[in-house]
Amino acid sequence: xxxxxxxxxxxxxxxxxxxxxxxxxxxxxxxxxxxxxxGSDRFDVVVVGGGPAGLAAAAxxxxxxxxxxxxDDQVDFGGQVWRAQANDQQAPAVDWIRTLELxxxxxxxxxxxxxxxxxxxLRAEQGDQLCEIGYHKLILATGARERFLxxxxxxxxxxMGAGGLQALVKSGLVIxxxxxxxxxxxxxxxxVAAYVRQRGANLLLICEQAARAALARFTFGLLxxxxxxxxxxxxxxxxxxxRFVTESAIIAAHGTRVLEQVEISVxxxxxxxxxDYLAAGFxxxxxxxxxxxxxxxxENGYVAVDEYQQTSKAGTYCAGEPTGIGGLELALMEGQxxxxxxxxxxxxxxxxxxRRNQLRRFASAMNRAFALxxxxxxxxxxxxxxxxxxDVTYSQLQKHRSxxxxxxxxxxxxxxxxxxxxxxxxxxLLNWSLDAPRPPVWPAAVEHLGTSIEGPQPxxxxxxxxx
Amino acid sequence: xxxxxxxxxVGAGIVGAACAEECARRGLRVAIVEADFVASxxxxxxxxxxxxxxxxxxxxxxxxxxxxxxxxxxxxLPADVEFEQxxxxxxAPGEEEMVEARRKQAQFLERGVPAQLLTPEELERLExxxxxxxxxxxxxxxxxxxxPPCAARFILDRAQMNGAKLFLGVPxxxxxxxxxxxxxxxELSGSTVVNAxxxxxxxxxxxxxxxxxKGHLVITDRYPGMVRHQLVELGYVASVHATSLDTxxxxxxxxxxxxxxxxxxxxxxxxxxDVDHVILGRMLQRAAxxxxxxxxxxxxxxxxxxxxxxxxxxPLIGWDPSDQNVYVATGHEGLGITTSLGTAKLFVxxxxxxxxxxxxxxxxxxxxxxxxHAHA
Lengths: 467, 376
Description:
Radius of gyration of chain A: 23 Å
CATH architecture of the largest domain in chain B: 3-Layer(bba) Sandwich
CATH topology of the largest domain in chain B: FAD/NAD(P)-binding domain
Helix content of chain B: 25-40%
Oligomer: heterodimer
């Protein structure tokens, strides 16, 4: 979400890291790593999530000489922020991945963790294969996803998330000369705006829901974070000349088969803008499903951690967005702390405390500034679809008192996305709290769900009923 | 503060809902009290198989009677109840089970339930995804499936339309003939109190012999046509080993959405709702043994639930031997969705002095206390 900041932060970190690696190779002999971590072969540290937090965690733990595995559901590491850079030799993600490879970290690419067993084993799928990855210490760096708020027409083709549009452009969508409106809230809007503009989009409007006063307070607060000032200025420069409105709301997306127009409200007045793409994102939702399944306590929707990023479950750490939406640099700090701490090097972890804490203060100011205005609730209409997997409308949900009751009665959240999109929307719209996750936290093959048993199964002995 | 009704029902699962509807339909003033929300307990977790079973004459009588009541209401069931008369196929893996299939067929035909024996070829034509080499099966075409939470809600909506009062989100803390005390201090007085609290019934009526029997279910993504009938393996899957009270059986259901619902497991003496990977693994291996392709389907959700089970596998429907103003309607184990409608008829017939359509004695809670006394 802060791609620009990576360029500032990373070179210094990399220098530090390369020095550490050299130290590591001087004092330790190379040892090979077994393919999976079953039983006695379990890894000392397993990191789930290959975004910035996970990469930093895995690299830090590996530097301490322990056996580390890094697991990500995508083939390319880097997470939402860095993924597209994975093949760009100059990119920070590539540096980190190279570091990991040098340190002998076992990389599980395209491996999706869907369940967890109490014997400290992650259950994952790699294509058709079941992968059981055992660990002594676990670091969860599962990242965040965009929040969507339903408005009339949000399911039309060419209406997408802000990050969604960026990802599509990164993977080849030609945006040149296309009319784009970016709406919603959060720093991601500006980052995506800058990105699509660089690629020649005709960016018509950036529509921020936060109030000008809240943004002004936040901007003023930036002065305490000089590095962030630079990043913000870079983004402002990249979006110079584009109309930017605050205290706005998306009223509707119109179009017969695809998006044709977007209707927004600014300062109480509605406007209709013809456009080709609407990128709408309402800040981020932490991916806490796996941490919660493993048994980590959540506080206010985020994974609770101590100063070493350890969760309520001893030996399980969490870093990055699941502990609080804070962006790239904070994720890197938390990842390093978690990595060093999980490997038992608390002294090294401590070095990152002060910068992390400073970044956390910045993050809370940011989250306050971009908090959703209550008024946004009014733009989801009775007939607006909230759950697009199961076509459930807002009025169907409003009859219910809880997420579970609504789910059972309307099938809301019961589709393949498992409520990842409509769940957070109902949290905002209806103040519902979501259920504790059950396995599988991602859809998985039926045959991989349970513990398989080998050999004869006497329990199946058949008895024919008594007459 | 106190309010007065003819009947106060505790528990808005499908059994409580059906009792409330029957009361309201016959002009009784009825209230129904639910600790959580409508159908939040075993009803929410249930498969929704409307099935005739014949483990005993009494089980047959109640399931068949109830199934006919469901069929009689078909036309009024809204689409979200997803009622579908897909029929059941009892799958017989070997000759031993074919013997059982023939016995079952004879029993059904004698009692007016259509049932057709299937050769392996016929079975393959009807259910091409079943593994080859099974001895055959028995098709019971009048069996059906539905989506239980919406069925319960529909029935309760009808009850409310006829004047039933619903109290949601308030647990009953104490019941006695004459009144129900709610955890929020409110008291509802009713000449008759119905304990339809499912597996929680003994908490309110101490001495009821109802135990929790945990089950697991798995639902897949949409694969229309994968399974066409409710498929259940014939021949009870039970344990002869002291250590394995836990049993699994092949039992899969086609949902109207094209999803496949995979069961089933039974476990006693487990209190936690957590998914048990060992029995889940056994259950799914059993399923894949009968239908190998099931293993490759994408599973979206796994859940567990608690059936209210009795020792003789018959429900408790009748007056509480220790309080003649409390009527008990629980212990339906895996058949509560099917038998809810029959249970409601039995209750209101007994309450109003009408002679029920089927003998009610076999379900009387007194049978269990009598046997307790006999042992004592």
